[in-house]
Amino acid sequence: MPITRPAAPVALEAVELRVLHLPLVSPFTTSFGTESVREVIVVRARTAGGDGWGEIVTQAAPLYSSEYTRGAWDVAQRWLVPALLDARTLRPEDVATTLEPFVGHRMVKAGLELAVLDAALRAEGRPLGAYLGATVDRIPSGVSVGIQQSPTALVDAVSGYLDQGYVRIKIKIKPGRDIAETAAVRDAFGAIPLQVDANSAYTLADADVLAELDRFDLLLIEQPLQEDDLVDHAALAARLGTPICLDESITSRKAAADALALGAASVINIKAGRVGGYLEAVRIHDLCRDAGVPVWCGGMLETGIGRAANAALAALPGFTLPGDVSASDRFYHRDIVTDPIVLEDGHVRVPTGPGLGVEIDPVALEDVTVDRVELRR
Ligand code: OSB
Ligand code: MG
Fold first, then answer.
1. Which of 16, 19, 177, 223 could form a disulfide linkage to 44, CB 3.0–4.6 angstroms apart?
2. Confidence class for position 184, pLDDT limits 50, 70, 90
């Protein structure tokens, strides 16, 4: 369902940006690298009617996508925030169109849009979930498990998450760290809901190896090939029994429509950051729902801000597969919100308070802030 009732406009007075360094509970390894500290940007939109919060989910290095935190820090201050401050009053639905002339930088646009949206919805007393079209009050929670030292270590890690109650496991794979790892998890835990994520680490020449994954009855394989390899993904899909899900490739509703038309994907991972905002994320949801294509909510190691927003998004009816919306403590000892996201019976609750429905813990925020700037109109 498209957004039926737009939010009221806000008078944007200033925008505060902070770079945070949040230590991870354990290093997170993917096919593109290892992270031990999450470097991320938090946005505070200061409006006449109160503050709103957003999160720019770039990572420190441009390895998952071309965006990266210090690039985001620059483009936000130099171009995107000034463009928003120039608009006298702003409806949240106008943020994307105001920023449209600037090519790319979707994660930055998404973080700014979320902050404006949160301010507007808080002022109206309206929860983000209700605004986006949520139809459930809690969502099933999956967990993304990084590449470990060995298949045995992977089984140990997965065992811990299953004990906590996560209802779906996703393991990261890369060439040479794929078949044995997937086999070990299947052998140890039987028919659990299981999927793999390659983060673009393969080429079509690896099709024979990837076809070996068919015997594990996976929910899906996520982004085996490069971001712009839609035609190759379609060729691979014709050779695999395992459904192909795209993450990196889906940068917009248009990209999703093209991927589906080409047969490059039969499942889509929706991340608001990657597609330029929660409103574009809803449009992709709507497209897929109309086409009968399952979607699920991806994650970018969000703080409580983005995590709350993801829980709201994942409560829309087309999100028929569990997402990577895990509890705050999957990544962080201490979140920057007063009520961290927790796992209850394998589910995460959709916040019901106004806007994001979470409150910032000012002390926790200050403790992890490494850079701060405020831009005023
Ligand atoms: O590919 O889904 C991905 C984290 C950072 C960048 C890309 C990805 C991921 C994850 C973690 O898999 C998802 C999460 O739990 O936040
Ligand atoms: Mg992915």
1. 16
2. very high
